[in-house]
Amino acid sequence: MFIPAFAVHGCIGASYGWSHISSTLMREQGVVTSAAGDWSLDLVTYPMTILVGGIGFSSAILGRWVSKVGPRRAMLQGSLTLAAGYGLTSFAICSHNIFLLYPGVGLIAFGTGSLYTPPVQILIDWFPDRKGLASGVVISGIGSGVLFFAPMMDFFMNKFHYMPTFVGKSIEVVADKGQYFTAIGDAMREVVYLSNLELAKLPYEGLAEGYYLVGTGSTGVGISYGLMGAVYTTALLSSTFALSRPMDIHGNIDKGDECLAENRNVHVNYLLRTPQFWLLFSTATLLSTGGMGLMSVAKPMVSEIFSTNLPTIVTTSFATAYLMAMSSGNLFGRVGWAALSDRIGRRKTFAIFSLCGLGVYGSIPVLINAIVSNPESSLAPVLLGLFCINTVAAVSILGGVYAVLPAYEADLYGAKHVGAIHTRLLPSATLASVLGPSVLLKLRSMDEQKAIQQLVSNIKPEVFEARFNTCMDNLPQLINSKAITIPRLMELSPPGTIDPSPYMYNTTLYTMAGMVSLASVLHYMVGPVDDKYFNMSKKLEEEEERKNKHI
Questions:
Q1: Which parts of 263-345 fold into alpha helices (H)?
Q2: Which of 71, 138, 377, 478 could anchor a disulfide with 178, C-beta 3.0 to 4.6 Å?
Q3: Packing angle, helices 427-457 and 41-69, rounded to 10
Q4: 213 and 29 Cβ atoms separated by less than 8 Å
Q5: Helices H, strands E: what count in the chain?
Q6: With 60 as the cut, is the pLDDT of residue 216 above it?
Q7: Taking the CA atoms of the chain, what radius of gyration do you get in angstroms?
Q8: What backbone torsions phi and psi does residue 213 show, to the nearest 5 degrees?
Q9: What is the 3-state secondary structure (H, E, C) of 53-86?
Q10: How far apart are CA 45 and CA 325, in angstroms?
């Protein structure tokens, strides 16, 4: 049962790999660099919010239905819905239609809602004495999703991408509202300029600095994403028919359910009345918000921070490996923390999450500053390794929170209704997936705007006009059209100007540390559930049993 259950969550875990393609989607039309019509960082990051957050939201909506129809039918519907979502998302990327992209990823998220909890409930039924490890191993499949998604997407994109037409380095261009146009035959066509700094960050070979014709190339992301959808659909359908609940020799559900009925359990109808639910919900949200934010921008973040100062180390391949390392942290965090919770208890495990999280988020800006201030030092690679370890640890906490939660719920409320209870707590992941990227992108955007204004103020007006073919008064239009970026401004800045790119995530990281501190306080308030809820639940279940007998 472990293999198909793990495979289901591995397919779901592809959502955490969205940042692997987000930076590529930002130049889908320009290919070598962003064109005016390309999507911005926030537009290509929010799909991950929908994908990851939708798991909790749709699980909560479909929870009762999943319990009613059973795991196989629920997973079959989820697999087909997910397949439709991948198809629509692939078409949206190929046609560059943002209004189809979001519904497409929404369908994927809705499909995962009926795929997430059945494997967890089935494994807990099979191993009732190892609830933490059972749920952790299954949910760890989510962490493994990126380990498959990233290299397969790279393989497909290498097959299907093609470069745009190179026009030249010194050509006559016309600037209009931040866009650049040149005469191609009898028509004016949009072009983008690829600088040397941007060229060094691209995974393509054979390119040169200069102007490229917009709309004549392709990154191959759209077709590749559709093919990945076909792979995942096949795996999900196979796993759906391989999973089953434990049976006795008479073909009935094994005594696990009978044992659960004899133990004390809180009925899901009374769940929201308990303060423990709201405290645990808030704690899980705050603990996982930072990890969600880091996963949403992992690949572009590490390139933005370190590629200029450590160009020989932080390459495109390094950024991909970094994302996969974070996915490994998500994977092993789910297994490791879950196994640890069986030994020391769920409450102590959550306390460790809080203490570790505070140290991790608070130390990352210090490490960034130490690396960037002296990149030539022999300690720089060591400090870079510590940065990677810290961010991987942050993501392992994210994975650990949701791996330990089902067992924590069983400890507090009894194991009988843990599947339905878990669907009520999963919206905390939805909230975290909204808060994490939103807070990160908002704070980063504010710091980026300040950095651009500061850099422009140090550039001579005549130098600025010669490079961008317009005056500084049109700066807002140039920013909106993506004609101005920090790397391009750094090429025009006076010698000795400090590159602000590495510091644009510091405010976010300190904010995340504050959230973890609040989570620690809230979790300290979680105590045993009042006996009255167990007594009320017992009476309700006895009443339901009498009604069923009469029927």
A1: 275-296, 298-306, 316-344
A2: 478
A3: 180
A4: no
A5: 22, 5
A6: yes
A7: 26
A8: -80, 125
A9: HHHHHHHHHHHHHHHHHCHHHHHHHHHHHHHHHH
A10: 20
pLDDT digits (tens, 9 = 90+) for 148-174: 888 899 999 999 999 999 988 888 888
More confident position, 408 or 203: 408
Q: Which long-range contacts (CB under 8 A, 24 or more apart) does 404-407 make?
A: 404/132, 404/135, 404/136, 404/337, 404/338, 404/341, 404/346, 404/349, 404/350, 405/280, 405/284, 406/120, 406/124, 406/131, 406/135, 406/139, 407/131, 407/132, 407/135, 407/136, 407/338, 407/341, 407/342, 407/346
**Lookup: tokens for 353:** 């999450």
Residues 228, 86: Cα–Cα separation, whole Å: 8
What HEC string does 375-389 produce?
CCCCCHHHHHHHHHH
| Per-residue pLDDT at 490 exceeds 80 | yes
Using CA atoms, how far apart are residues 390 and 286, in angstroms rounded to an integer?
Answer: 18
DSSP 17: G
- SS3 at position 537: helix
Closest CA to 179 of 170, 171, 189: 189
- Check: CB of residue 441 under 8 Å from CB of residue 298: no
| Burial of 494: CB neighbours in 10 Å, binned 0-12, 13-18, 19+ | exposed
Pairwise CA distance, residues 136 & 396, whole Å: 12
What digits encode the pLDDT tens for the residues 254-310? 444 444 444 678 888 888 899 999 999 999 999 988 888 887 788 788 888 888 888
pTM strictly above 0.85: no
Rounded Cα gap, residues 236 and 246, in angstroms: 20
Crossing angle for the helix pair 131-160 and 117-126, to the nearest 10 degrees = 140
Strand order in the sheet with 166-168: 166-168, 210-213, 187-194, 179-184, 174-176
Torsion angle in degrees (nearest 10) through CA of 528, 531, 532, 536: 110
- Give the pLDDT of residue 129: 67
Q: Are 374 and 498 in contact (CB under 8 A)?
A: no
Structure-block tokens of residue 113:
């809602």
> Angle of helix 41-69 relative to helix 275-296, nearest 10 degrees?
140
Length of the chain: 551
How much is the pLDDT for 473?
80
> Going by C-beta distance under 8 Å and a sequence separation of 6 or more, which residues neighbour residue 25?
38, 39, 44, 93, 219, 221
Neighbours of 441 (CB within 10 A): 21
Mean pLDDT of the chain: 84
Is residue 104 predicted with pLDDT exceeding 60? Answer: yes
Give me the torsion for CA of 444, 447, 451, 452, rounded to 10°.
60
pLDDT of 382: 93
